[in-house]
């Protein structure tokens, strides 16, 4: 599918989604509550069939957190970027995608570790890289650490 | 058993920690393994023993500097790691890379791929208990490293890329040296087959072990030789060509077995394809500039950029969010090993301890690339 | 502290500068054995480990000096070559490995990361800035990563250091 | 020497004890030197296989390398983990090295040069050598380490299974030569070694014996008990210093013992190379001392077993047991039947 068709599909699917086409791929920004049903449709519908989640990360925009999901379809070979906006930065929460793509498990652990986003219905949410008793989430912009020597 | 010696748990399972210091984990991966006798019931990876906060560092490095930190991520594909960073900056700035720089980049990248696969060959022998292949493979690796040393100034972490091209021109005898290295590799290739491929014990250790189906490979996001051994066409050099790969003739090696043996065969055949690529280029390196038109201080336009390359282990992506400044606002590396690792707990279940070693050896993990 | 002042030795004691002829010869033999049989622990965290493996290979071949036997278990190792970055999470493991080794034990810090954190000195939250914060180091090798020749040189330097150790000799004050 | 001692010490018991002590000391010194030599040989064979030089700095051509290693291990901290069962932990290396030493008693090193001429030598060797598993189990269990425990359990399964094949392959020669005494077996090869006589059961038995004895002494490709890459050292993970050196020494002595037994039973031991009734040729061969024949054959087999180690990858535990129970054991049983048939019909010579 071309970018235009994907845009049409996404508008039909979720009228509240907004688009951003500055980058290489089509970026779709959706509210975080709608994530799971949208993703399920994207994964399971025959003409979309996004079976390959190749990058999952988060960006801290100071006033909100943005989950970024890069989806690709191995059969149709089209790519889409889904962004879910989490406005609550104190106690961010979002649905886990483990049930759709198993690769999300470790990726979500990583995001939880470095950004503090809690994933609901995640099978084994833990700090992946840092010790369990680590204070703070290092990739947040407001992270402070007295041991960190800044250039 | 170096960590958390919790004995039999409530269900009567025997829990063994492999790692962080364990000879077969190729670094500091820690796998918590639940055993029933010799049979594996569950595997849980514990990471972070070499988490060096590269992504946080990158946020304070300029676009010229951040390339070189990535050499330390997947140090066996150091050159290809640098390439992806250079490519993403070029893509954002829309800089044209001179043809000469592209050709040299590709030659060095393929040499890196060969040397990386050679190290994998060495370590698979070592992991399965045969020490001798290690020395055979390192003989050729040493030749490639010396070549890198002469031209780039470093043996392992070459740091030869700049945004827009390469840092220096290669030496005048570069072509001749590359041909020597390739000749040595091709002359000795049959020895690898003789010592490992034809060995019955070795085949029995790998055949039918750790089967990863095509569907699982997609679902776990596996890429590189690991996924291609399951029949998935995922070579970025073919799907999304960069640096002139579209002009080159080479085959994407796939296999349908999905087991350790298929992964072994795919990697062995890939080395030959890399030789083929280099042979096409080595006599036709164009003359001309080596660096495109870039400014001293690079500022990326506001926006988000994603670029992927095929390293020796799979698809490496870099995702850069720029706010228009001289440093990235956020940088994320989509590491091939991280995704490949997530498949291990799934495919190791029900196998023996010895099979876990085979699986880890054929998936070929580089831990600093997982942890970053 | 000084036992000799309180206890009288029955008989005559002839003071010699380094503990007498036999003991110093025995010392030399022990030091010779120790310095020529350094068994490293198979321990590598990152890039430097690859250069360590290159040192094993046929071109550099550290087995010539008797470093051949790489032991996987710290109990049987004499030497730990810390090859690669040590992170905050790895630091307790490294300390534990060091503690598990029986005496005498030696440490080589290989590469810039182990000396000071190297390329990961600034703006990182998880890297130990030099392993001498955790365990005592005998020989440092700079480089990122150091060449195999540098590793061989460091091991020969360590051999020389061991040859001046004392097992029986009195400490000279 | 016996008569000289008899004159010096009239008391029979005293004589016996003195002789035993002298033999023991000579044997121990000999075996320690042997273990040194085998260690050096192993490294040089490894270097030869791996296109490198091997030890060459310590002493002339690196010959003192193993001496340095042993001295170092001797002066290293002797270490017993807190959680270990201290009595068993310290006893295990002793047991392993004792069984290794015991098995050497009936082997004839040269013509009429034997420590103990026992008339059931074959039985004695196979029974004593299988006792090593007790030491390994003890070491693995008492270390209170999970890797050690897995290694010890593996060794239990492995050694007990392969003991069967060793026994059966030895029995086929016993049937053909008609004696359990090692001396008689050597004598029966006066007109040609068993392996060269062209009997099919003997060739099969020889191959099985080499495979099974490699497994019995836990050498690669059957070194699952130690399996560095899987178990970081297996049963000896927690051992340090001299106790570990005893394991190493026991490994080399075991290697020597099985090679010596194979040389004695299949290659004629100290018996020179004889060809049927060619008296002239046989006389020339007799001029070469019998000890050279014995050690030549033994080291030939040691070299073969060392080459295994540096060539083959390791087997998996289930493959290891399959190999024994599904292939080696049935083949050796059929082989024994075949040998019996040959002996009854008188087809052999």
Backbone structural class of chain D:
mainly alpha
Enumerate the spans of chain D where pLDDT stays under 50 for 5 or more consecutive residues: none
Overall helicity of chain B = 40-55%
Give the CA-based shape of chain D: globular
Residue-averaged pLDDT of chain B, rounded? Answer: 85
Strand/helix succession of chain D? HHHHEEHHHHHHHHHH
Mean model confidence by pLDDT of chain D: 81
Structural class of chain B: alpha+beta
Instruction: Write down how many β-strands of chain D occur, each being a DSSP E stretch of 2 or more residues.
Output: 2
Detail the poorly predicted runs of chain B.
1-6
The total count of helices of chain D amounts to 14
Strand order of the largest sheet of chain B: 1-2-3
Helical run tally of chain B: 14
Q: Which sequence of strands runs across the widest sheet of chain D? A: 1-2
Helix content of chain D: 55-70%
Described by its quaternary structure, the protein is: heterotetramer
In short:
The complex is a heterotetramer of chains A (151), B (372), C (173) and D (349). Chain C has 173 residues and is mainly alpha-helical.
Summarize the structure in words.
The complex is a heterotetramer of chains A (151), B (372), C (173) and D (349). Chain A has 151 residues and is an alpha/beta fold. Helices cover 22% and strands 26% of the residues of chain A. Chain A is globular, with a radius of gyration of 16 Å. The radius of gyration of chain B is 21 Å and the shape is globular. Mean pLDDT of chain B is 85; it is low at 1-6. Chain B has 372 residues and is of the alpha+beta class. In chain B, helix 11 runs parallel beside helix 13. Chain B has helices spanning 54-58, 66-69, 78-93, 99-127, 132-152, 174-197, 200-206, 214-219, 224-228, 236-239, 260-282, 336-348, 353-363, 367-371, and strands at residues 14-18, 30-36, 39-46, 161-162, 165-166, 303-311, 314-322, 330-334. In chain B, a hairpin with a 7-residue loop joins strand 7 (314-322) and strand 8 (330-334). Chain C has a single domain (38-163), classed as Rossmann fold (3-Layer(aba) Sandwich). In chain C, strands 1-2-3 form a 3-stranded parallel beta sheet. In chain C, helix 2 runs antiparallel to helix 6 and helix 3 (47-56) crosses helix 6 (148-163). The longest helix of chain C has 16 residues, at 21-36. Chain D folds into 2 domains: 1-75; 76-345, no CATH class. Chain D has 14 helices and 2 strands, in the order H-H-H-H-E-E-H-H-H-H-H-H-H-H-H-H. In chain D, strands 1-2 form a two-stranded antiparallel ribbon. In chain D, helix 7 runs parallel beside helix 14, helix 9 runs antiparallel to helix 11 (241-266) and helix 11 crosses helix 13. Chain B binds chain D through residues 1, 5, 14, 16, 22-24, 35, 38, 125-132, 134-136, 139, 195-196, 199, 201-202, 204-205, 352-355, 357, and chain D through 46, 49-52, 145-147, 150, 154, 220-221, 223-224, 227-232, 310-319.
């Amino acid at each position: 599918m071309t970018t235009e068709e994907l845009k049409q599909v996404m508008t039909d699917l979720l009228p509240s989604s907004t688009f951003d086409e500055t980058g290489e791929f089509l970026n779709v920004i959706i509210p975080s509550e709608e994530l799971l049903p949208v993703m399920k449709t994207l994964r399971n519908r025959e003409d979309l069939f996004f079976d390959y989640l190749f990058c999952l990360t988060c960006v801290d925009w100071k006033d909100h957190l943005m989950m970024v999901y890069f989806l690709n379809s191995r059969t149709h070979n089209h790519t889409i970027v889904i962004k879910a906006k989490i406005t609550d930065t104190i106690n961010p929460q979002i649905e886990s995608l483990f049930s759709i793509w198993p690769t999300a498990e470790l990726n979500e652990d990583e995001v939880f570790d470095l950004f503090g986003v809690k994933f609901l219905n995640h099978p084994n949410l833990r700090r992946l890289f840092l010790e369990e008793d680590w204070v703070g989430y290092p990739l947040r912009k407001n992270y402070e650490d007295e041991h960190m020597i800044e250039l | 058993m170096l960590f958390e010696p919790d004995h039999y748990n409530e269900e009567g399972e025997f829990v063994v920690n492999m790692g962080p210091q364990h000879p077969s984990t190729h670094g500091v991966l820690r796998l918590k393994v639940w055993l029933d006798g010799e049979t594996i019931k569950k595997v849980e990876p514990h990471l972070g023993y070499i988490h060096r906060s590269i992504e946080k560092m990158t946020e304070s490095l300029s676009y010229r500097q951040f390339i070189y930190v990535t050499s330390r991520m997947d140090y066996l594909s150091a050159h290809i790691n640098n390439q992806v960073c250079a490519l993403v900056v070029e893509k954002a700035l829309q800089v044209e890379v001179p043809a000469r720089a592209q050709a040299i980049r590709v030659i060095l990248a393929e040499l890196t791929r060969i040397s990386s696969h050679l190290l994998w060959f060495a370590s698979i022998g070592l992991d399965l208990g045969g020490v001798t292949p290690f020395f055979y493979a390192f003989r050729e690796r040493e030749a490639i490293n010396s070549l890198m040393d002469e031209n780039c100034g470093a043996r392992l972490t070459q740091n030869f890329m700049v945004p827009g091209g390469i840092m220096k021109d290669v030496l005048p005898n570069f072509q001749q040296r590359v041909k020597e290295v390739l000749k040595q590799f091709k002359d000795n290739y049959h020895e690898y087959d003789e010592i490992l491929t034809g060995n019955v014990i070795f085949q029995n250790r790998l055949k039918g072990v750790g089967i990863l189906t095509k569907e699982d490979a997609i679902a776990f996001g596996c890429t590189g030789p690991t996924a291609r051994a399951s029949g998935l066409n995922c070579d970025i050099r073919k799907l999304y060509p960069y640096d002139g790969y579209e002009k080159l003739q080479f085959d994407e090696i796939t296999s349908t077995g999905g087991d350790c043996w298929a992964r072994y065969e795919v990697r062995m055949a890939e080395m030959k394809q890399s030789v083929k690529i280099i042979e096409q280029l080595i006599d036709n390196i164009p003359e001309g500039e080596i660096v495109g038109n870039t400014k001293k201080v690079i500022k990326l336009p506001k926006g988000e950029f994603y670029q992927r390359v095929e390293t020796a282990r799979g698809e490496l992506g870099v995702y850069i969010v720029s706010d228009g400044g001289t440093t990235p606002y956020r940088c994320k590396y989509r590491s091939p090993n991280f995704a490949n690792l997530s498949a291990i707990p799934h495919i190791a279940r029900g196998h023996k301890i010895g099979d876990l070693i085979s699986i880890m050896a054929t998936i070929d993990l580089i831990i600093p690339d997982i942890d970053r | 502290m000084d036992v000799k002042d309180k206890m009288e030795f029955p008989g005559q004691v002839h003071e010699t500068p380094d503990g007498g002829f036999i003991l110093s010869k025995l010392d030399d033999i022990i030091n010779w054995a120790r310095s020529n049989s350094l068994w490293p622990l198979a321990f590598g965290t990152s890039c430097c480990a690859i250069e360590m493996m290159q040192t094993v290979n046929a071109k550099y071949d550290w087995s010539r000096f008797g470093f051949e036997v790489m032991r996987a278990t710290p109990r049987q190792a004499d030497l730990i070559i810390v090859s690669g970055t040590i992170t905050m999470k790895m630091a307790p493991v490294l300390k534990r490995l060091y503690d598990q080794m029986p005496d005498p034990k030696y440490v080589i810090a290989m590469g810039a990361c182990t000396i000071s954190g190297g390329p990961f000195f600034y703006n990182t939250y998880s890297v130990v800035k030099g392993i001498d914060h955790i365990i005592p180091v005998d020989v440092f090798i700079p480089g990122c990563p150091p060449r195999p020749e540098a590793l061989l040189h460091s091991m020969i330097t360590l051999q020389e250091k061991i040859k001046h150790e004392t097992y029986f000799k009195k400490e000279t004050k | 020497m016996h008569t000289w001692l008899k004159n010096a010490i009239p008391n029979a018991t005293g004589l016996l004890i003195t002789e035993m002590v002298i033999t023991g000391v000579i044997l121990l010194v000999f075996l320690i030197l042997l273990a040194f030599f085998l260690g050096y040989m192993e490294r040089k064979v490894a270097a030869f296989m791996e296109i490198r030089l091997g030890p060459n700095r310590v002493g002339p051509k690196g010959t003192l390398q193993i001496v340095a290693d042993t001295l170092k291990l001797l002066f290293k901290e002797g270490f017993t983990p807190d959680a270990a069962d201290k009595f068993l932990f310290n006893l295990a290396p002793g047991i392993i090295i004792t069984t290794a030493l015991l098995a050497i008693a009936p082997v004839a090193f040269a013509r009429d040069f034997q420590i103990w001429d026992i008339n059931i030598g074959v039985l004695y060797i196979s029974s004593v050598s299988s006792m090593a598993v007790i030491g390994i189990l003890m070491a693995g269990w008492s270390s209170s380490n999970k890797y050690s425990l897995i290694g010890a359990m593996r060794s239990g399964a492995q050694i007990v299974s392969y003991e069967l094949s060793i026994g059966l392959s030895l029995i086929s020669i016993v049937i053909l030569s008609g004696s359990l005494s090692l001396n008689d077996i050597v004598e029966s090869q006066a007109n040609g070694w068993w392996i060269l006589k062209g009997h099919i059961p003997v060739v099969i038995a020889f191959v099985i014996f080499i495979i099974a004895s490699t497994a019995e002494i836990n050498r690669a490709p059957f070194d699952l008990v130690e399996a560095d890459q899987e178990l970081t050292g297996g049963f000896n993970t927690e051992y340090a210093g001299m106790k570990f050196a005893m394991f190493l020494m026991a490994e080399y002595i075991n290697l020597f013992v099985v090679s010596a037994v194979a040389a004695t039973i299949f290659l004629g031991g100290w018996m020179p190379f004889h060809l049927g009734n060619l008296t002239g040729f046989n006389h020339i061969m007799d001029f070469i001392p019998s000890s050279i024949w014995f050690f030549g054959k033994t080291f030939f087999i040691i070299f073969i077993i060392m080459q295994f180690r540096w060539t083959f990858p390791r087997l998996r535990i289930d493959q290891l047991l399959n190999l024994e129970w599904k292939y080696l054991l049935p083949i050796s049983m059929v082989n024994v039947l075949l040998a019996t048939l040959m002996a009854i019909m008188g087809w052999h010579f």
